[in-house]
Specification:
By secondary structure, the chain is an alpha/beta fold. The chain has a single domain, classed as Pyruvate-ferredoxin oxidoreductase, PFOR, domain III (Pyruvate-ferredoxin Oxidoreductase, domain 3), CATH 3.40.920. It contains 8 helices and 6 strands.
Length: 190
């Protein structure tokens, strides 16, 4: 069994750490050897957050380097571009089309790059772009963007739908379980 490498990238406060926890828990329950590694950076100040999730029969290292990621789950467009070099040939980026301006843009020292996703597609990268924020809002909370993106990834992994819902029940605070299950179902069925 080959090892599957998933990067979850975003900006601090978007829920990428919960997404990696939920994914890691699900994969462990499915019997895989799983390694999860988090790099927070300046996450509390809106900086980049990267989480590596690797799973397979036996995983030796938690780190994913350039050209190794099967999937990149990106919570923001610019983060997708920032980490695209880590994608392997034939890999796929699932990206929220939301734009969150980084500090240099906010203070006027830079401009947010135009057509970020088009540039990735022009390089031959498989980009699955969706407005995860709109789906999350329709489900009841903007904070469900992480679950919306996980649902899109779930369609690519060989794990039954009901197991994902069970992982939500196991890893999400009880008062948010139904909202997150609804967000997952809405995204999965789109």
């Amino acid at each position: 069994m080959k090892t599957t490498n998933i990067m979850i990238v975003g900006v601090g406060g978007q829920g990428s750490l919960l997404a990696s926890k939920l994914l890691g828990s699900l994969l462990l329950d499915e019997g895989y050897d799983v390694k999860v590694s988090e790099v927070h950076g300046m996450s509390q100040r809106g900086g980049s957050v990267v989480t590596y999730v690797k799973f397979g029969e036996k995983v030796y290292s938690p780190i994913i380097t350039e050209g190794e990621a099967d999937y990149i789950l990106s919570f923001e467009k610019l983060e997708a571009a920032r980490w695209a070099s880590c994608l392997k040939d034939g890999g796929r980026i699932i990206v929220n089309t939301q734009q969150i301006d980084p500090m240099p843009v906010l203070i006027g020292n830079a401009e947010y790059p135009e057509e970020v996703l088009d540039a990735l597609t022009a390089k031959g990268i498989s980009v699955d772009a969706l407005d995860a924020l709109a789906i999350a809002n329709d489900a009841g909370s903007a904070k469900a963007v992480n679950i919306v993106l996980l649902a899109r990834l779930a369609k690519l992994l060989d794990i039954p739908f009901d197991k994902w819902l069970a992982a939500i029940e196991k890893n999400v605070k009880p008062r948010f379980v139904e909202l997150n299950k609804n967000a997952f179902s809405m995204s999965y069925n789109k």
